[in-house]
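Backbone shapes recur. Consider a single case.
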Amino acid sequence: MNPGRLKKRITIMRYHDTENSLGNLVSKLIPYKTVYAEIKPVRGKEYQEYYKDTNSLEYKITIRYLPDLLPTDVLKYKDNQFLINSIINVDEQGYIQEVMCTEKIQDRKAEVIPDGG
């Protein structure tokens, strides 16, 4: 693999349970790791959900192999958030992974703050 392909820095966000002021457990996204990746759009879809127009784009994100990447993680690139659909270990070699993701255009997760804090 040409390492020049992986030129975008993405942050892997992971849900972490914290206790709020009332003593309840709340899941929040916190930065877990920052890695280099290649991001390519695969296809776009427009559909109507509950009488509301919704747009979603699907992406293939290629990263170096991470054995601890979870399907519940959220990938973040600049202000874009990508929900993981599937994680593919290419050729089962443990060298690179292709992560198929969906970006919601209108319905973004409120937990992720754009400035990272």
Summary: The beta strands are 8-19, 25-49, 52-64, 74-77, 80-89, 96-104. DSSP finds no helices and six strands in the chain. The longest strand covers residues 25-49. The mean pLDDT is 82.
